């Protein structure tokens, strides 16, 4: 069967499926010889919609055998196996689907003709349900907590509901692939399949003779001047006309058309598509990002113009003052009030208190001069600025003269007491990062992650956002979920 015939039958089957004529669509797909992985996936989805679980499983087997990297096929077969009460096999398929995501938050199949995004938290949700059905509650709880780290949108609240159900040792609802979504052939390819007569019959297209119907050969006629092409608007000019947007979530591209962004980046919106994707520009690069990953910035209000009630200032200079006229508002100075240089009294010099020198022991030792009695929060800000630290994740300590041991400075009251003990305007401070303890094991899922085991102590370097921290452990530096640790109490 030629490729043209295959695409025609494929398009006819999708048209029937859009009208929910499942049987007609199956018969049309059956006429395709040597179907591809996408077509086998479509047939399996149709069988699943008709409740034919065993037949659907066989079709998904064919789809996976033709493309071993199609994660959505493993996800659909796992759903079919779970419905057919084959939980152990469904468990394996959900694991394989998550592995094929390769640490990404989602895979968008739009470029392959399927309007669907397979999210990692969806796969882990069903994987946890399979563990729960097999009464493996500890594994289920661990998988659901892992799914929380891949949750990026508010609509993923089903993960929170699953965690609550697992804590009560109750089963929760299976997430299904949307009915009616199929791999579709490209519209441009389908449009080119229609027969077109590029020669046709001879006809008069343009002539200088009114109502000319001659279609034979004739001498060359004057040609109308070609229209001047419109100048294409440059991308930089589009950027100047577009509105700025702020990036809300970290976005990792899955193809060359998408743009990698991080939370806090400012992008300019060029076009918003109807499929919830937006074309933006960032750092002279243009690409696609999900529209719900960005939010518009508030425009700066224009400066108010002066009130029309206030008269404008005069444009001419003031006239000269007449002679012999004194200004009553200008005070006159008596001669007795003028101080001769020889009779000037000596001015008293007020002594300005010198700053206190604070020696700080951290990555290296530095000395700074601060105002005595400086608040703890202000001192922390100065130290962070000196060591170029973006977040104040530090603990200050002071060696008491009475006890001779390092005492953490945790409150403003302790800071005031330390200032009272300072002598000779000298103060020595020891600085270290906040230390936390791991509540659970965390395995690296990306190159920027930091792995650790339960009970390990980690130094927190900075706070990435509300859910992630940057830390250092065992000589390695990386990020990790904030919900996986507990901050140690400081005396």
Fold blueprint:
Blueprint: H1 3-18, H2 22-30, H3 37-49, H4 53-66, H5 71-83, H6 87-100, E1 106-108, E2 117-119, H7 120-133, H8 137-149, H9 158-167, H10 187-191, H11 235-241, E3 243-247, E4 266-272, E5 277-282, E6 285-290, E7 294-296, E8 356-361, E9 365-370, H12 376-386, E10 394-399, E11 406-409, H13 412-421, E12 426-438, E13 457-463, E14 468-473, E15 476-481, E16 485-487
Parallel strand pairs: 8-12
Antiparallel strand pairs: 1-2, 3-4, 3-7, 4-5, 5-6, 8-9, 10-11, 10-12, 12-13, 12-16, 13-14, 14-15
Helix pairs in contact: 1-2, 2-3, 3-4, 4-5, 5-6, 6-7, 7-8, 7-9, 8-9
Note down, in words, how this protein is organized.
The protein is of the alpha+beta class. The protein folds into three domains: 3-167, Tetratricopeptide repeat domain (Serine Threonine Protein Phosphatase 5, Tetratricopeptide repeat, Alpha Horseshoe), CATH 1.25.40; 235-296, Roll (SH3 type barrels), CATH 2.30.30; 356-487, SH3 type barrels. It has 13 helices and 16 strands. The chain has helices spanning 3-18, 22-30, 37-49, 53-66, 71-83, 87-100, 120-133, 137-149, 158-167, 187-191, 235-241, 376-386, 412-421; strands spanning 106-108, 117-119, 243-247, 266-272, 277-282, 285-290, 294-296, 356-361, 365-370, 394-399, 406-409, 426-438, 457-463, 468-473, 476-481, 485-487. The strands form three sheets. Strands 8, 9, 10, 11, 12, 13, 14, 15 and 16 form a nine-stranded mixed β-sheet that branches. A five-stranded antiparallel β-sheet has the order 6-5-4-3-7, covered by helices on one side. A two-stranded antiparallel ribbon has the order 1-2. The longest helix is centred in the N-terminal third of the chain and has 16 residues, at 3-18. The chain starts with a helix and ends with a strand. The model is unreliable at 299-307 and 324-353 (pLDDT under 50).
């Amino acid at each position: 069967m030629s490729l043209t015939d295959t695409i025609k039958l494929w398009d006819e089957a999708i048209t029937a499926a859009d009208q929910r004529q499942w049987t007609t669509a199956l018969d049309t797909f059956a006429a395709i010889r040597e179907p591809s992985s996408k077509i086998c996936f479509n047939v399996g989805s149709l069988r699943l919609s008709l409740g034919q679980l065993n037949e659907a499983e066989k079709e998904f087997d064919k789809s996976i055998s033709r493309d071993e990297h199609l994660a959505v096929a493993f996800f659909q077969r796992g759903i079919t196996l779970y419905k057919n009460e084959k939980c152990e096999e469904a468990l394996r398929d959900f694991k394989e689907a998550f592995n094929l995501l390769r640490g990404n938050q989602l895979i968008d199949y739009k470029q392959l003709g399927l309007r669907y995004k397979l999210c990692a938290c969806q796969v882990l949700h069903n994987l946890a349900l399979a563990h729960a059905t097999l009464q493996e509650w500890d594994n289920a709880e661990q998988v659901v907590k892992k799914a929380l780290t891949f949750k990026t949108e508010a609509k993923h609240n089903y993960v929170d509901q699953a965690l609550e159900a697992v804590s009560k040792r109750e089963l929760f609802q299976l997430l299904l692939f949307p009915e009616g979504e199929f791999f579709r052939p490209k519209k441009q390819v389908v449009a080119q399949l229609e027969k077109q007569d590029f020669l046709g019959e001879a006809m008069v297209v343009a002539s200088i003779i009114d109502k000319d119907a001659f279609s034979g050969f004739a001498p060359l006629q004057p040609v109308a001047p070609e229209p001047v092409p419109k100048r294409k608007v440059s991308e930089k000019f589009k950027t100047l006309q577009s509105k700025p947007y702020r990036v809300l979530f970290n976005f990792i591209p899955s193809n060359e058309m998408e743009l990698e962004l991080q939370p806090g980046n400012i992008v300019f919106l060029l076009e918003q598509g109807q499929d919830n994707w937006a074309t933006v520009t960032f750092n002279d690069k243009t690409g696609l990002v999900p529209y719900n990953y960005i939010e518009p910035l508030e425009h700066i209000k224009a400066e108010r113009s002066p009130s029309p009630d206030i008269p404008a200032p005069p444009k001419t200079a003031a006239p000269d003052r007449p002679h012999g006229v004194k200004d009553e508002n200008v005070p006159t100075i008596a001669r007795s009030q003028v101080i001769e240089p020889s009779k000037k009294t000596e001015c008293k010099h007020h002594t300005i208190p010198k700053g206190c020198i604070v020696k700080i022991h951290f990555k290296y030792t530095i000395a700074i001069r601060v105002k005595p009695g400086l608040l703890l929060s202000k001192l922390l800000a100065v130290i962070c600025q000196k060591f170029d630290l973006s977040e104040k994740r530090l603990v200050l300590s002071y060696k008491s003269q009475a006890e001779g041991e390092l005492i953490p400075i945790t409150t403003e009251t302790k800071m005031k007491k330390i200032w009272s003990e300072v002598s000779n305007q000298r103060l020595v401070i020891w600085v270290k990062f906040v230390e936390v303890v791991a509540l659970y094991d965390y395995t690296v899922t990306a190159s920027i992650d930091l792995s650790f085991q339960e009970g390990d102590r980690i130094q927190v370097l900075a706070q990435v956002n509300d859910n992630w921290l940057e830390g250092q452990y065992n000589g390695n530096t990386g990020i990790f979920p904030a919900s996986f640790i507990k901050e140690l109490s400081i005396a």
